[in-house]
């Protein structure tokens, strides 16, 4: 059973517009969430994170929103750039236990020039 | 810093053969993780070490898989005997305990024919 779900396997966005990637989770013990970006033939790289005590975290063009009641988080990229084209994974962990990530299956973002 | 180093980058082997994947974590990191990436299941945690000790191996699919960490700078993931369904990209990641971000290596693409 997938505890972390990314229901959109792919997304295409025009350069300069907003990209919104979504992630849902089922385990209420998760209290820390991360987004990773992955280019082909490379390992995932950390992008941005959010603790459950917050509902928003911003870093430049990237903002993560957390809705705990809905068990939903989203990553907003504004403005989108062609270099943002990659696979984005969300991950969740329960910090009261081991540092064991549960990853979603990823969303492939394509930013069209 | 060289980052997490994995070898080989690509491995093609025949069913029934033994496969050994290698990982050198970032110097000073004391947590090491092995993941497997497939299209269907995304990134799955196989095993997690802390201070060279296996903490959680619940993701290891079956007895054909084994992992060791003889010292702080080296880990292996072994599959014996290998099967075609083991074909995937295997990632190693490391982190500092207490820090939530993990740093991934470039991965080993395994093909079992």
Question: What does this 3D model show about the protein?
Answer:
The complex is a heterodimer of chains A (113) and B (113). Chain A has 113 residues and is mainly beta. Chain A has one domain (4-112): Immunoglobulins (Immunoglobulin-like, Sandwich). Chain A is 0% helix and 53% strand. Chain A is built from no helices and eleven strands. Chain A has strands at 4-5, 10-14, 19-25, 32-38, 45-51, 56-59, 62-67, 72-77, 86-93, 102-103, 107-112. The mean pLDDT of chain A is 94. With 113 residues, chain B is mainly β. Helix content of chain B is 0%, strand content 55%. Chain B contains no helices and eleven strands. In chain B, the strands form two sheets. In chain B, strands 2, 4, 5, 6, 9, 10 and 11 form a seven-stranded mixed beta sheet that branches. A four-stranded antiparallel beta sheet of chain B has the order 1-3-8-7, with no helix packed on it. In chain B, 38% of the residues are buried. Chain A binds chain B through residues 32, 34, 36, 41-46, 49, 89, 91, 93, 95, 98-106, and chain B through 4, 31, 33, 35, 40-45, 48, 50, 55-56, 91, 93, 95, 97, 100-107.
């Amino acid at each position: 059973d997938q505890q972390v779900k990314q229901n959109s396997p792919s997304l295409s966005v025009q350069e300069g517009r907003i990209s919104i990637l979504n992630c849902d989770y089922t385990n209420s013990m998760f209290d820390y969430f991360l987004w990773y970006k992955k280019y082909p033939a490379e390992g995932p790289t950390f992008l941005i994170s959010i603790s459950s005590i917050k509902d928003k975290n911003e870093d430049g063009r990237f903002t993560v929103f957390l809705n705990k009641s809905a068990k939903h988080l989203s990553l907003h990229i504004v403005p989108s750039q062609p270099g943002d084209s990659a696979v984005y994974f969300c991950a969740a962990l329960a910090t009261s236990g081991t540092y064991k990530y549960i990853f979603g299956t990823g969303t492939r973002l394509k930013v069209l020039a | 810093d060289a980052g997490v180093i994995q070898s080989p980058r690509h491995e093609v082997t025949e069913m029934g053969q033994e496969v050994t994947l290698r990982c050198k974590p970032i110097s000073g990191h004391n947590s090491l993780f092995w993941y497997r990436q497939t299209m269907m299941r995304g990134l799955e945690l196989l095993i997690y070490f802390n201070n060279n000790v296996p903490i959680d191996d619940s993701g290891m699919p079956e007895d054909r898989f084994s992992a060791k960490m003889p010292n702080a700078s080296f880990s292996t993931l072994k599959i014996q005997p290998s099967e075609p369904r083991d074909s995937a990209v295997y990632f190693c990641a490391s982190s500092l305990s207490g820090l939530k971000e993990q740093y991934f290596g470039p991965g080993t693409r395994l093909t079992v024919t």
